[in-house]
Design a protein that fits this description.
By secondary structure, this protein is α+β, with helices and mostly antiparallel strands. The protein is built from seven helices and 14 strands. Its EC number is 3.1.3.15.
Length: about 260
């Protein structure tokens, strides 16, 4: 295991301890950001703690996080942090939320960790080291499915009401064409693609901190990750993850 992946897993341990302590807390402080999304003291506290650890462990690396920003040039080595992905779920007591941690090198994710302590699950990947999940004390390597026909494919998404705009009808037509559709939402859709439980996951609007670790997780599991326009990587403003066999078929229907 690379030293960078080891550090990322240690950061996830640190975040888990902080976020689980605040999950369900009666005194949880919730504020509204300028974009009208919620932020809690747990989001801010976790990101501050991770930044402090990185400042000690990797002082020469840049850091970019959802709550406190950072350089957006994405050159050299840079850690990308989302302390709580799924803050609305976190606030309401829904356990589907996680901490997202990625290391990118010149914009390309090379390490990714998705830690969902309320679900008892953690996924991680590093370039050349494969993708893994831990659950109930067991760790296993994961890979995408071998489904090659849309009519046999399972698709998961997050939201049908915003972001699709002129693609909405195309997306709805795609959902009619696949075998099964569910809205597992957010990070979980992509992690299930990596596990082979779902074959397609897509979102029309995302930020880089939402998907950077998911990119490397999908690729190391044998799948393909791009924007819905087909741009590889996590910088296209949208996300499409598939088992690879279905990627071009889906793109032809959405572009």
């Amino acid at each position: 295991m690379s030293t960078d992946l080891t550090l990322a897993l240690q950061l996830a341990d640190q975040a888990d301890a902080l976020t689980m302590e605040r999950f369900g807390a009666l005194d949880l402080r919730v504020e509204t950001k300028p974009d009208l999304t919620p932020v809690t003291d747990a989001d801010q506290g976790a990101e501050r703690a991770l930044r402090a650890t990185l400042a000690q462990a990797r002082p020469d690396d840049a850091v970019f996080g959802e709550e406190f920003g950072g350089a957006t040039t994405f050159t050299g080595r840079q850690w990308i942090l989302d302390p709580i992905d799924g803050t609305k779920n976190f606030v309401r007591g829904v356990p589907v939320w996680c901490t997202l941690i990625a290391l990118v090198d010149d914009g390309v994710p090379t390490v990714g960790v998705v830690s969902a302590p309320a679900l008892g699950r953690r996924w991680w990947a590093a370039a050349g080291e494969g993708a893994h999940v831990s659950f109930n004390g067991t760790t296993r390597r994961i890979q995408v499915s071998g489904v090659s026909e849309l009519g046999a494919a399972s698709l998961s998404y997050s939201d049908l009401t915003t972001g699709w705009e002129d693609r909405r009808e195309k997306f709805v037509a795609l959902t009619d064409e696949v075998w099964r559709v569910r809205a597992y939402g957010d990070f979980w859709s992509y992690c299930m693609v990596a596990e082979g439980a779902v074959d397609i996951a897509c979102e029309p609007e995302v930020k880089v901190w939402d998907i950077a670790p998911l990119d490397i997780l999908i690729r190391e599991a044998g799948g393909t990750f791009s924007s819905v326009d087909g741009r590889p990587g996590p910088h296209g403003g949208s996300a499409l993850a598939t088992n690879g066999l279905l990627h071009e078929q889906v793109l032809r229907r959405l572009v």
